[in-house]
Amino acid sequence: MELSESVQKGLQSLADQSVFDHSSFQVLVDVSFRSLLSSHGDPTVLDQPELKQVDQILLKQSHTAATTFILEAVKQNADKSTISSSLEELTFSAERVEIFYSAYQVSKTQSFSSFSCSIGRRLPHVNDVSWRLQYHMKNAQVDKVNEPFYLISLNTENEGSSEDINFSCTVEQLQDLVGKLKDAAKSVEKASQM
């Protein structure tokens, strides 16, 4: 895996048994995976009592490096040999590689099961779109602006309840949105043909 120099340094610090003993290593790995899986405010790495003895800057660097490595591994759908060889190159002991990989496997399973649970819930779908073109002539500082913008209203429905989503955007933002929607539609079309 291609890792930046700062990520490599952070992981090498995490591999160093004089900086992170067995207990603090385990806690940092667990917190790193939890922080990526959690959608709400779990305690941060700095709040962990087992990590109070570690230099706070080094702790942040190692946590950032660990989460970056995890995301890169997930992005590449890395297997055990890829993860092991990458960590061993960064001076991880076999025991620490095994601890890290075990946490990786558990987290993959948890994220898949939480994804499976959410499949039953429907995302809201757009029923109707309305828009209006506005024109800013001046701003609050009495400067001339002379810029068009759009007021967009999306009428959405989810499980019988209706909701309007309103936003404004410039011409460039609207063009970007339309382009992304076209790309998404093409992706859905390709996925449905597989």
UniProtKB/TrEMBL annotation:
COMM domain: residues covered: 125-192
GO biological process: sodium ion transport
InterPro entries in the record: COMM, COMMD3
Pfam families attached to this UniProt entry: COMM_domain (PF07258), COMM_HN (PF21672)
PROSITE patterns xrefs: COMM (PS51269)
Similarity comment text for this entry: Belongs to the COMM domain-containing protein 3 family.
Name listed for the protein in its UniProt record: COMM domain-containing protein 3
Organism: Amphilophus citrinellus (Midas cichlid)
